Amino acid sequence: MIPRSxxxxxxxxxxxxxxxxxxxxxxxxxVLTPSHGPPLSMAIDPHLTTGGATLDGLPxxxxxxxxxSGPAVPTPIVTRTRTMPPLPGEELARIGTISxxxxxxxxxxxxxxxxxxPTPDTAHPRRCTDAALRATTRWGAxxxxxxxxxxxxxxxxxxxxxxxxxxxxxxxIIGVPGNHDRAFRNGLAPxxxxxxFGLTLASPLHVVDGAGYRLVLVDSTTGGHNHGRLDAVADxxxxxxxxxxxxxxxxxxxxxxxxxxxxxxxxxxxxxxxESRRFMEAVARTGTRCMVSSGHTHRHRRWEHREVTATQVxxxxxxxxxxxxxxxTDRAVRQVVHRVTEPxxxxxxxxxxxxxxxxxxxxxxxxxxxxxxxxxx
Length: 377
Ligand SMILES: [Fe+2]
Ligand SMILES: [Fe+2]
Known about the structure:
The structure is a single chain. By secondary structure, the chain is an alpha+beta fold. The protein has helices spanning 124-139, 156-168, 190-197, 231-242, 273-286, 343-351, 360-363, 368-371; strands at residues 7-13, 18-23, 28-34, 40-44, 51-55, 63-69, 77-82, 91-98, 107-108, 114-115, 143-146, 173-175, 205-210, 213-218, 249-254, 289-294, 301-305, 308-312, 322-329, 332-339, 373-376. A six-stranded mixed β-sheet has the order 12-11-8-19-20-21. A six-stranded mixed β-sheet has the order 13-14-15-16-18-17. A hairpin with a 5-residue loop joins strand 3 and strand 4. Helix 4 (231-242) runs parallel beside helix 5 (273-286). The radius of gyration is 20 Å and the shape is globular. It binds fe (ii) ion (FE2) (2 copies).
């Protein structure tokens, strides 16, 4: 078999760091040498030629060439990226998010044909969520929001697993329900699960205030349906945004994506365009600095309405397998999306690139500016 060409890509950038992913390397040492900043070297395992690492100590706001060299690549590979400029204002807080955990799932893909072989002791949704929480808290998140589809079918043992990781976490985890948390017979409703297991879930609204921010968590589910609605809770959510302390930023988190266009981008269905536009307009009219982010699509997208940005952030457990972070200052918010790079997670998330007839590898990640960007007011 002809070996595939090694690939090096930049998945995430911040002002002083860049997350680098590689695949199809040879075993041996890999050296990543940025044109500005310290190099990083590591051994590539012959059984795991896909991996990732974060280059730290980079200068902010600069174009940087990263040279991959060493025995792991047949010839040096140069990748260019640009670090973000420093965020204006004083950093006040860091918030983390995870999404679409689907605890209890054992497969992925339109027909569910992608499975782990052999069956592991700990299934990929739990491994990926645990790894994402470790990375998010290492990054400095003081609270983590789980943006729905916490369980795959709302079953008691799935809620128990979610509760286990919530109670084991070193920071508070607050959830919003997703369609998968309500859609199945014999499932436990999120409200019942919250009572039974001592969870904090938006039902239909939950507000958290911290230094420099207000989190507005919204339940956008519609019983057993795939699509989302906002109208029933929109007025209260907009009021919560409007009552954000002056100078603070409001982050609205919900499960369903807000449709930007009259024609939706394939499955799954989010909140319809008219309802989404009404909500974005009402939020913009409050004058509060605000950003909205959802899950559900397992993809990365970004759009703006006036000064309000709406994003979709992918699933923690299938390609690319991510968590998101929000850096809050008194003048800006930065969204950064990082891949989970622990080897037993990457092995699975790389496998799921072949979903959707092989197109998932291009559909899910979106563009770097839709994942990592600054919103400055
Ligand atoms: Fe999902
Ligand atoms: Fe969903």
